[in-house]
Design brief:
This protein has 2 helices and 10 strands; from the N terminus they run αββββββββαββ. The radius of gyration is 30 Å and the shape is elongated. The termini are far apart.
């Protein structure tokens, strides 16, 4: 019977009466893998000699959810001039004792550092590789004040 409103009658089943919409939600496992964090055991913020001993600390042991991190570390001037040798290291210790996850390196500053950048702020920059490239990106930075009283005549310029 034709009509409008509550009196409307049609001859068969409509799409709305036959189809029941279903929504399927699949919650995927969130990737919980992350790279281990690296920090410095920083006991000083002033550099007074051409040889700088730095202690790096891997904050936790490598395990199921924590992956190793490779870093490249060096001292740079604020204008990005390289002022030391570069230290390349893979932090992959599975030691649970904190003191056993410490790694030390003695950086050799160039003579250029003492001549041109003395009494200035310099940066220890930790970099990590960018996956699939030969490029590096900054992971962390630490500021130091370079105050070398005497330069070493035997360093390379």
């Amino acid at each position: 019977m034709s009509g409008s409103g509550s009196r409307y009658v049609h001859g068969g089943a409509s799409l709305q009466e036959v189809v029941v919409p279903l929504l399927k939600i699949v919650k995927k496992k969130v990737d919980t893998l992350r790279l281990v964090d690296i920090d410095l055991i920083k006991t000083f913020d002033r550099i007074t000699t051409n040889i700088v001993a730095v202690s790096f600390w891997q904050q936790e042991a490598i395990g199921d959810r924590v992956q190793p991190r490779q870093i490249r570390a060096a001292f740079f001037a604020e204008d990005s001039t390289l002022l030391s040798d570069q230290f390349l290291y893979l932090f992959d210790s599975t030691e649970t004792a904190e003191r056993l996850r410490e790694t030390k390196h003695r950086f050799q500053l160039t003579q250029k550092a003492g001549i041109f950048y003395n009494n200035q702020s310099i940066i220890l920059r930790l970099e990590e590789p960018i996956d699939g490239t030969s490029q590096w990106k900054t992971y962390r930075t630490f500021n130091f004040l370079l105050t070398i009283a005497f330069t070493n005549d035997f360093d390379n310029f």
